[in-house]
Amino acid sequence: MPELKGISDVDLAGKRVLIRVDYNVPLTEGCVDDDTRVRTTLPTLKMVLDAGASIILMSHLGRPQEGEFDAAYSLLPVAKCLSSLLDKDVPLVQNWIEGIDDKQNEVLMLENVRFQIGEKKNDDDLAKKMAALCDVFVNDAFATAHRAQASTHGVAKFAAVSCAGPLLMKEIDALGKAFQNPSRPMAAIVGGSKVSTKLTVLESLMEKIDQLIIGGGIANTFLKAKGFNIGNSLCEDELIPAAKSLLNLAEEQGKQIPLPIDVICAKTFSKEAEASCKLVGEVEDDDLILDVGPQTAKLYASILQKALTIVWNGPLGVFEFDQFGEGTRVLAEAIAESDAFSVAGGGDTLSAIAKYDVGERISYISTGGGAFLEFLEGKQLPAISILAEPSS
Ligand code: AMP
């Protein structure tokens, strides 16, 4: 991870500061359903205001058609929500692209950046216009850091001064601590539905970890690669060779990829399906493997007990249905109880953390779904790399 300038390295007094935040919040009937993402930014906003600067906030919301205003994706509810949290007026500026003429308000919010043509393509003209709105650009949105778009990447190139916000810094520090020089042993857990979406993650993690715990639908392909009958379970046959080569690589390098020894099966994929526990050798042709069994969960937990660094992405089973959630629950509890430095992230992982109420006991929960996965894949995140470069 590059060394970055933070807001405490920049003189903000009297400056107009444009902050890229992640206010992509869930809305129902024009109201913010969950204001966590807005609340998380409050310390950053207070820090900037206390330094004597004024703030322009910039975010996307949902996936609207570029070039068209659509009220369903307006940030107006978010501006209202922030206004009540800050106890200050936060006007939403509709037509901001040619400049903003508002010297009265300390905090302004720009309408959804995704209404602008050129945002997704990282258009230089759009990025220059964004940069022209401010003296200092601050990126505080890790969740969009894997996207090179005008509001995440281009603007940082053209702003007079660009730096990382505190939330972004915190994320980089935590991920750096887990990956750059991890305390060992280091264990990673990769679960979820498909090998295809996680293959690069698995390959990249293999270079770093001592133990790679595999669960969820992903484990089925590995079990089949080992010659087990997995019945009707989710499996990607075309990735069996990739699974075999990861297993071979682990053996060559003296690392462990423990596979399930028992599994929870059902005959149908449904909330009401009856769960039965079987050893992996006992799975029948019409079985669906939907969770790891208790012996496996115990084995995985014992590995985690000895780890000093833990990285977690993806559930071990179909945890949305309670009867297939025990593997994920035991794992979540083992991570929570461990003294290791633990980092977790990815959409479904956050739902599992919430469901089993272990969030307080995990060292760091990443705010990025796609960005966290790309980080695990070992990719450079463009919105972060650009902050390390001098402005154009
Ligand atoms: P992902 O988005 O790839 O992280 O996958 C998360 C989804 O994988 C969750 O919705 C789980 O229900 C699902 N999942 C976990 N284990 C299995 C399994 N054994 N079979 C099918 N789906 C699974």
Structural description of this entry:
34% of the residues lie in helices and 16% in strands. Strand 7, helix 5 and strand 8 (161-164) form a beta-alpha-beta unit. A six-stranded parallel beta sheet has the order 5-6-4-1-7-8, with helices on both faces. A five-stranded parallel beta sheet has the order 10-9-14-15-16, with helices on both faces. It has a three-stranded antiparallel beta sheet with strand order 12-11-13. It is an alpha/beta fold. The chain binds adenosine monophosphate. Adenosine monophosphate (AMP) binds at residues 192-194, 197, 216-217, 234, 289-290, 314-315, 317-318, 320, 346, 348. The site of adenosine monophosphate has 16 residues, from helix 8 and strand 13.
Oligomer: single chain
Taking the alpha carbons of the first and last residues, their distance comes to: 21 Å
Q: Summarize the amount of helix as a percent range.
A: 25-40%
Order of helices and strands: EEEHHEHEEHEHEHEHEHHEEEHEHEHEHH
Q: What's the total helix number?
A: 14
Q: Rg, please?
A: 23 Å
Walk across the major sheet and give the strand order.
5-6-4-1-7-8
What fraction of residues sit in β-strands?
15-25%
- Catalogue the unreliable spans: none
Secondary structure: number of strands:
16
Largest sheet: 6 strands, parallel
The class by helix and strand makeup works out as alpha/beta
- Ligands present: adenosine monophosphate
Please tell me the overall pLDDT. 95
What best-fitting shape do the alpha-carbon axes yield? elongated
